[in-house]
């Protein structure tokens, strides 16, 4: 929802603005009532239920002009009047100029058609028959140019098209036709060139090609392309969004208050407009000019500095009487300063709203993430393939687990278990256990620390295996590999997303191996289709180390306790002014700017529906019984794991290369134990195999650099 207010004269601008808005609204209501009542009086007069000199004259004139079309004209005018009157009711269709013009054209072509069908007779027209005088006049013009038959045919076509466009049928029809011809074309191509057409057509559908550039709004090929595949869950599994109306008196009162407060601090500024999001109202404030006398005694005008406004954030919070206030200076792409305050009539953001949005459909990508709605209510979407890993942070109760839940729901709404596998590590053991049983899930939701390390160790092995497979067929990335395999009838590799809902536990119990695994995966896993989504509530340097931070450029921050914490995650202040409960800032690595959004909230029922759908679709009642692929790696790290393993990892990472005898010396242990430790390091993918001719081994994890001082 975007509203912009017209520039006001400097004096009394606030009161003037509110007055102008009220007059405008009142004027529109009056116009609506006049239109509807005139149409109703005309209808009653035509039906003979009322009469009067003026009304009779008016009706005669209308009937003479429009003939039989009078009835349709009256209905059309009543419809337009109602659209104007009920423009503020959400469920009522918006006044759409294009459709109204189409309906009018349809009316006039129909008048002409009536006249054409009944012999182009001017006498009948004067009696108020056929299309009246207007219909006769139009039909005669067409007849003069094209002759009887062609004129009638053309009028028929014009009438048909304008009617379809007017009732809003033309756009869906053209989309349907487009889809139909695409399918026909695809089947023909497959029949001609492929042995197994179903495999090819499946492949085409599974890999929608991402489009670049601006988002088309209408039925261009890009917008029409992302039709939901049959195998994917239907949208009706998801809940509808609530409609909420904005509290206009509150919005206007706060706008006046902002200008007044700034003026009191000697800062001339104008609220040029506002945007209403699900939980935030953002005011666009245009800095004005201050007049100063320079050394020569001349008066010079100087623009107010942006920092003067942002420096007043606490005073504004106090003056506006709000809990929290954030200043975005300037709003990217605009010459305004943004002042954001909580919206009194907030609403929940539903996944369905974003999945159904034009923006989501215009950029089809299997790993598109529906993050939330921004301050104008527009969807914030990011492609995980491009990010390619995400770090999520926020204080307790700020919305991290809800966010991870909605990201998982979004991914499984758009990917089959053949295309996407997920692993969930949830030491908190609360939110994410609900996903047990989802066919996309490998094994079960892991809650034990040693098993979680097993998952990460497996991911490293899987990544290495995938690199070998990609190399063997000369494929640049997973997409290219899968395309080649589809042509050769080889194995299709799914994308893998690993979700970790609390990194702190892992980092505190096994800091070196966890950091090593995460960094190695983050650095190298993109090409092999392995992605990480890691959440934590502790933005401290021992949890989010410099190395981890450097490898997770995409970050989501929910509410933070302090601006220091905000800077740790976002390298900028701001997260400390968020409101909690899903209010977030997204650091997009592609634009490097911060985007504020209200995160999606997925309801328990939606999760249950999605899991039930996939269980049914894949016919697996108990998919979790399938052993997790990391099962073999877990025991060696469980109870039997050597206490010295963490120390050994730290040592080899510091030294960059190692050997069993070196471990023996440094850790002061016997050869058998050092050899066992070395085997375990190799098994975990931390060191490579023995290099030919020597006992030295290469260390596969990078050495951590010194922590950056920015903390
Ligand atoms: N996007 C959202 N929309 C509306 N409410 C939300 C949203 N996200 C979170 N909440 C509310 O905030 C509560 C806490 O969210 P959540 O459990 O995700 O926090 P958390 O950051 O994971 O906390 P912790 O770290 O303590 O587990 C939720 O129960 C919900 O009521």
TrEMBL record:
InterPro entries: FtsK/SpoIIIE/SftA, FtsK_alpha, FtsK_dom, Ftsk_gamma, P-loop_NTPase, WH-like_DNA-bd_sf, WH_DNA-bd_sf. Keywords: ATP-binding, DNA-binding, Membrane, Nucleotide-binding, Transmembrane, Transmembrane helix. The chain crosses the membrane at residues 30-48, 68-89, 101-120, 149-173. The keyword DNA-binding applies. Residues 195-224, 685-711 are annotated as: Disordered. Residues 377-567 form the FtsK domain. ATP binds at residues 394-401. It holds the Pfam family FtsK_SpoIIIE. Gene3D superfamilies: 3.30.980.40, P-loop containing nucleotide triphosphate hydrolases, Winged helix-like DNA-binding domain superfamily/Winged helix DNA-binding domain. GO terms for molecular function: ATP binding; DNA binding. Belongs to the FtsK/SpoIIIE/SftA family. This is S-DNA-T family DNA segregation ATPase FtsK/SpoIIIE. It comes from Pelolinea submarina.
């Amino acid at each position: 929802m975007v509203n912009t207010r017209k520039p006001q004269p400097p004096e009394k601008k606030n009161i003037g603005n509110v007055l102008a808005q009220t007059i405008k609204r009142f004027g529109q209501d009056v116009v609506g009532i006049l239109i509807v009542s005139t149409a109703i009086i005309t209808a009653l007069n035509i039906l003979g239920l009322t009469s009067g000199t003026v009304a009779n004259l008016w009706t005669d004139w209308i009937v003479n002009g429009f003939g039989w079309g009078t009835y349709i004209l009256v209905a059309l005018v009543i419809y337009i009047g109602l659209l104007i009157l009920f423009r503020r009711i959400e469920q009522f269709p918006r006044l759409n100029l294009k459709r109204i013009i189409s309906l009018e054209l349809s009316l006039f072509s129909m008048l002409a058609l009536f006249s054409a069908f009944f012999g182009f007779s001017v006498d009948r027209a004067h009696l108020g028959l056929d299309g009246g005088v207007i219909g006769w006049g139009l039909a005669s013009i067409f007849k003069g140019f094209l002759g009887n038959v062609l004129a009638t045919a053309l009028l028929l076509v014009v009438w048909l098209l304008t009617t379809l466009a007017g009732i809003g049928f033309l756009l869906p029809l053209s989309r349907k036709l487009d889809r139909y011809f695409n399918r026909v074309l695809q089947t023909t191509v497959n029949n001609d060139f492929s042995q197994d057409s179903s495999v090819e057509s499946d492949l085409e559908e599974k890999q929608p090609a991402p489009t670049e550039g601006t988002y088309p709004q209408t039925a261009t090929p890009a917008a029409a392309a992302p039709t939901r595949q049959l195998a994917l869950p239907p949208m009706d599994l998801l809940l509808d969004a609530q409609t909420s109306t904005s509290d206009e008196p509150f919005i206007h009162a706060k706008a006046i208050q902002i200008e007044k407060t700034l003026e009191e601090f000697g800062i001339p500024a104008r609220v040029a407009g506002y945007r209403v999001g699900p939980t935030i109202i953002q005011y666009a404030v245009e800095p004005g000019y201050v007049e100063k006398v320079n050394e020569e005694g001349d008066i010079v005008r100087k623009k107010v500095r942006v920092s003067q406004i942002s420096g007043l954030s606490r005073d504004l919070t106090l003056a506006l009487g709000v809990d929290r206030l954030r200043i975005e200076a300037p709003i990217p792409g605009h010459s305004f300063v943004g002042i954001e305050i909580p919206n009194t009539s907030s609403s929940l953001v539903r996944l369905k709203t974003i999945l159904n949005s034009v923006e989501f459909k215009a950029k089809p990508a299997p790993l598109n993430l529906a993050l939330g709605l921004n301050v104008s209510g527009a969807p914030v979407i990011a492609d995980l393939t491009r990010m390619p890993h995400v770090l999520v942070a926020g204080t307790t109760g700020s919305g991290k687990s809800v966010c991870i839940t909605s990201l998982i729901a979004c991914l499984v709404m758009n990917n089959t278990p053949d295309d996407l596998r997920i692993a969930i590590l949830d030491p908190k053991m609360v939110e994410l256990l609900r996903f047990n049983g989802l066919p996309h899930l490998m094994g079960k939701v892991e809650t034990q620390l040693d098993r979680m390390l097993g998952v990460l160790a497996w991911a490293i092995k899987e990544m290495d295996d995938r690199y070998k497979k990609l190399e063997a067929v000369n494929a640049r990335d997973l997409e290219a590999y899968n395309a080649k395999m589809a042509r050769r009838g080889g194995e299709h590799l799914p994308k893998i997303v690993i979700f970790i809902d609390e990194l702190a536990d892992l980092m505190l119990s096994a800091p070196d191996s966890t950091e090593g695994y995460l960094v190695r995966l983050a650095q190298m896993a993109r090409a092999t289709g392995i992605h990480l989504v890691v959440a934590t509530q502790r933005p401290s340097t021992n949890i989010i180390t410099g190395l981890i931070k450097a490898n997770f450029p995409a970050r989501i921050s929910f509410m933070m306790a302090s601006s220091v914490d905000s800077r740790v995650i976002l390298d900028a202040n701001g997260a400390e002014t968020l409101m909690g409960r899903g209010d977030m800032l997204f650091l997009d690595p592609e634009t490097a700017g911060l985007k504020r959004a209200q995160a999606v909230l997925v309801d328990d029922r939606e999760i249950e529906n999605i899991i039930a759908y996939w269980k049914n679709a894949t016919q697996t009642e108990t998919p979790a019984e399938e052993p997790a692929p990391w099962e073999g790696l877990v025991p060696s790290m469980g109870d039997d794991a050597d206490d010295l393993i963490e120390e050994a990892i730290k040592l080899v990472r510091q030294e960059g290369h190692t050997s069993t005898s070196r471990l023996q010396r440094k850790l002061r242990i016997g050869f058998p134990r050092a050899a066992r430790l070395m085997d375990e390091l190799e098994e975990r993918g931390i060191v490579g195999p023995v290099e030919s001719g020597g006992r030295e081994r290469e260390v596969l994890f990078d050495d951590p650099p010194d922590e950056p001082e920015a903390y």
